[in-house]
Amino acid sequence: MNNLNLDMIRAEFPALHTRTVYLDNAGGSQVLRRVADRIHDYLLTTSVQLGASYAESQAASEKVLMARRSVAELINAQHDEEVVMGGSTTGLMFLLTAAILPSIQAGDEIIVTNSDHEANIGGWLRLAKAGALIKVWEVHRDSLQLELADLDALLTTRTKWIAMTHASNVLGTINPVCDVAKRAHAVGARLCVDGVAYAPHRLVDVQDSGADVYVFSFYKVFGPHHAVLWGKRDFLLSLPTLNHHFIGAEILPYKLQPGNVNFELSYGCIGISEYLAHVGTMLGASPAVSNRQRMQLAFNAFSQHEDRLAEKLLAYLRSKSTVKIIGLSQLGKNQRMPTISFVVADRLSEAVVRHMDGFNIGIRFGDFYAKRLISALDLAAHGGVVRVSIAHYNTAEEIDLLVRHLDEAIG
Asked: Which helix (H) or strand (E) holds 119?
């Protein structure tokens, strides 16, 4: 088992040197200095329009292309032109569903879940105006999981899309996307996966996932407020252009990036892959291995460390009779993320979080834009859940501090 050098890790994140304990990482991780340095470099040396013949424009064009290639490597895309970047997961999903809309016929069926962030629900619901029938795959109230048997009951030969999250941003559950992909493809449907709550904790492999579309935001993965949507090349080529009329349907990814990407934020994202590969090297990766293998070694160490911290918190919560963990109460084998939600009997979630504010411990309460899930589980009366979301740069001492003050708040 490879242990992280947390002093080295935390030195990469300048904001960790403040008094605040950051345990709201599912809302947005802290940003790598490497990322900020690249954004700074781009803005001060190559902040020009792309595609001109002069030197600075040529350099800027190469930087933006480097960014696309770096993201393609990070997610294991087969072609870098499959990488569509934009301002947010929500924005990219609205663009995607707008592009899909002309292909929808009356009676086509689309399956969404009631456990997703609204980013992977709202856009799909808009397709109902073209005649699509929207079905909801609901979380099982007892297991708090998306049961495959329930999906099987929804699938028909008219199913065109399934939209689901790789990991719930409230429950923390890792969902069986590979199994869902096989079921989708067996009936001629496609799968769209929201990886926002998965990508900070596991190395994304879009090819291995079986998905046809995969999307997540970099600001959850140690980077800037920027996002990526990956799609299989043949599928993306089949979509109409969303750009100017002279940007043809064959021009990927530009046809799906109206107004173009944010150049400096795209370039900053190279720092994410660079950091992950660096951690893999520090953990002993052979000089002969690929960057992807280095990144995988880093994420293996991240998940082991995060699991230790998550179990420390879960064990405390399991010991409190007034606490209900919303999601799996045990870690299991690759079954949940270190995103832990709970409610306290006869107490508003806000009151618990406000208590923690006084000790500079950043956690959060609410529905986290998974409003349908909070409603389905009858959690609105608590004001939503208390959510603690751990990242690999958090320490055991921070969790101990959290537990100590939680005990005061819970009683």
From this structure: none
Do 244 and 316 sit in the same domain of this protein? no
What's the mean per-residue pLDDT of the chain? 97
Residues 112 and 154 in one domain: yes
Judged against a pLDDT cut of 50, whether residue 262 lies above it is answered with yes
Task: Please check the confidence at residue 394 and state whether its pLDDT lies above 80.
Answer: yes
Coil vs helix vs strand at 401: helix
Instruction: Using the 3D structure, point to which of 249, 272, 295 is the last residue of a domain.
Output: 272
- pLDDT category of residue 229 using cuts at 50, 70 and 90: very high
C-alpha–C-alpha distance, residues 379 and 173, integer Å: 18
- Residue 333: the pLDDT is 84
Same domain membership, residue 73 and residue 23: no
pLDDT at 47 over 80: yes
64 and 16 inside one domain: no
- d(Cα 98, Cα 78) in Å, to the nearest integer? 25
Phi/psi-derived region of residue 346, left when phi > 0, alpha when psi is between -120 and 50, beta in every other case: left
3-state SS, 238-275, equals HCCCCCCCCCCCCCCCHHHCCCCCCHHHHHHCHHHHHH
* Domain co-membership, 265 together with 329: no
Pairing of strands 339-344, 385-389: antiparallel
Residues 266 and 144 in one domain: yes
Q: What is the CATH number of the domain that holds 77?
A: 3.40.640.10
Chain centroid to CA 400? 27
**Which is it for strands 227-231 and 213-217: parallel, antiparallel or unpaired?**
antiparallel
Tally the domains of the chain: 2
Whose tokens are 């609105």? That residue is 380
Q: Are residues 119 and 256 in the same domain?
A: yes
What residue type is assigned to position 325 of the chain?
I
Q: Which two tokens stand for residue 405?
A: 């003050």
Residue 2 has pLDDT above 70, yes or no: no
Q: How confident is the model at residue 332 (pLDDT cuts 50, 70, 90)?
A: confident
Please check whether residues 217 and 257 belong to one and the same domain: yes
- Region 230-250: what's the mean pLDDT? 97
- Tens of pLDDT along 88-109? 999 999 999 999 999 999 999 9
pLDDT at position 388, please?
98
Taking the C-alpha atoms of residue 270 and residue 221, their distance in angstroms, rounded to an integer, is 12
The domain in which residue 378 lies consists of 6-31+303-410
Q: Is there a domain that residue 287 lies in?
A: no
